[in-house]
Design goal:
78 residues; alpha/beta; 19% strand
């Protein structure tokens, strides 16, 4: 699983089409299979981190905008 922590790489995952400001996240995880997605969810839960699931970012209600914690992106899932 690819993990992004560089702020310039994390930044695109902090917004969606709603253009609401203020998204923050410690990291973005990009699982590439259902198994790595399951592992990511288990690890995040065990650590007590907030989880925000990120799809394509086309939503207009701000549901993808994280408030800390970890973003788990579904972009690499087949």
């Amino acid at each position: 699983m690819r993990v992004l922590t560089d702020p310039t790489l994390v930044a695109p995952y902090l917004s969606d089409e709603s253009r609401m400001p203020g998204g923050t996240a410690n990291a973005v995880w990009l699982p590439d299979s259902i198994e790595t997605l399951r592992q990511a969810l288990c690890e995040a839960h065990a650590s007590g981190e907030f989880i925000t699931l990120a799809g394509a970012g086309t939503g207009v209600v701000g549901g993808r905008i994280p408030n800390g914690g970890i973003v788990i992106s579904t972009e690499r899932l087949a």
